[in-house]
User: What shape does this take?
Amino acid sequence: MYDIAKYEEAYTVEEAIALLQANPQAVIISGGSDVLIKLHEGQLPDAQLISIHGIPELKGIKLEAGQTIAIGAGTSFSQISRSDIIQQHLPVLGEAVSMVGGPQIRNIGTIGGNVCNGVTSADSAATLFALNAKLRIQGSNTERLVAIHDFYQGPGKVDLAHGEILTAILITKENYEGYNGHYIKYAMRNAMDIATLGCTAVGKFINNQVTDFRLALGVAGPTPLRCYKTEEIAKGRLVDQTLLAEIGKTAITEVNPRTSWRASKEFRLQLVEELSKRAFLEAYRKAGGEVK
Amino acid sequence: MMTRRIVFTVNRQEHMLEVDVRESLLDVLRDRLDLTGVKKGCSVGECGACTVLIDGEPFDSCIYLAVWADGKQIRTVEGEAKDGKLSKVQAAFLEANAVQCGFCTPGLVMTTTALTESDHSYTKQEIKKELSGHMCRCTGYHNIIKAAEKALQDKGEQDHDCCGKCHQ
Assistant: This one.
C-alpha cells in the first residue's frame, strides 16, 4: 500500500485550489506516474494528496479565440498524440510525447504533470520551448499567463505557488502556422527510458531559405533551454552544409550539460552538435526541402 | 484508515467495494477479487506485468489508485476466455509459442487485445512500439511479436464468441 496519510479529491479547479490553500502540506496528484513512484521510493513520507485526476475541465484539446491551441493540463500523452487538432497543426508535439515512457505510461501521464515536475528531461519540454508555449495558471480569483521559459526556474523548480494550478498549455497561431518541426530523443532504449538528450527544431522555410528557426534542448542544462544565437545565425540563410555545420558548432556554445551516470558532459556536447543538425535537417525535409 | 466506496465493473461483473485510499488497483484486483492473473512485477509502471484494460485502454494497475477505478470498466486476463474457449489473442499466443515462464503473458495479452479491438491497423514496427511497455524476463519477444501479428492478422475475421463490442 502507498504511504498516503491523507487523500482528497477535487472535481473542479476551484475546489482543488481551495483544498490546496487549506493544507500547506498537500501535494497534487494528476496521473500519478511520477508522484506514486516517489511514494513507492519513500521520497514523500506520509503524503497528503489532492487528486486532480478526475477534473473534466483539465482534459482535452481545443482551439480558442484566434486559433490558439489550448491543451488541458490533465490531458494524457496518448490523447495529445491522437488529437486531430495536434495532428493537423502541431504534429511535432504529438511525435514528441509519443516517445514518453511506454504506451501504458502515455495513457496515464499528463502533459501538465510533465511540465510541473520541472525536470530538464521531460519529453514535452523542449518542444514546448520551441513553440513559445504559454502556461495558464489559476489561483484563487487570479489567472496568469507565464511563458514556458520563465516557468522553469531550476532543476525541479517551477514558477507555481502553493494554491495555484496549471490549467492549460497554450500555443498561439503565429507560433505553429507554417512551421515544420522535428524532435529527437536520444536514449539508451527505444522505450521506457529517460532522454540522454532531447532536441527540437522548428522552422519556417521559403524555397531553401530559412525564414524562421527555433532550437530547443532538454538535458543540455539544468532546465530545458533555447539556443537563441544558433537561431539568429540560421535566419535568412540558405540551407546548405556550411549552415548545418555552423548550427552544430554554435549550439554547443549555448548549452551547459553535466556529467551524470547516464552520460558524460562530453558525450552530451557531441549529441547537442549532432542532434541539432539532424533535427534542423529533418524539419527542413518535412517542409519539402533538400540539402545539396 | 481512510476508505471510499467504489462501484466498478470487472470482467463484466459489477462490484461495490470499500477500498482503502492507499490501495492500488493492482492490490484490489489481486487481494480483494482474487484476480491473480494480474501480476505484480516492478510496482513502478516499468514492466507491464500488471497491465489491465480500463475502459478499453491498457494501464499499469500498480500505479493506478483503486479509488480512481470508480465507475470504470476493468478487464483482466481472467475474463478473456469464454465458455472454456480461449480468446483469439490467447489462442494466438499459444500457437506462436509466445509463453515461456508466463509471468508477462497476462499483461501482454491484454495490451494485444486492446490493439485487436481498435480500428487502426498496425505494422510490425507499430506493434513493437505498442508492446514496448512490457518486459519479458525470458526475452521471448520474437514469438510474442509473432503472436500479436497473428492476432491482428485475423482482425477482420470476427470472433464468433466475442466481437469485443459486448465488453463496452
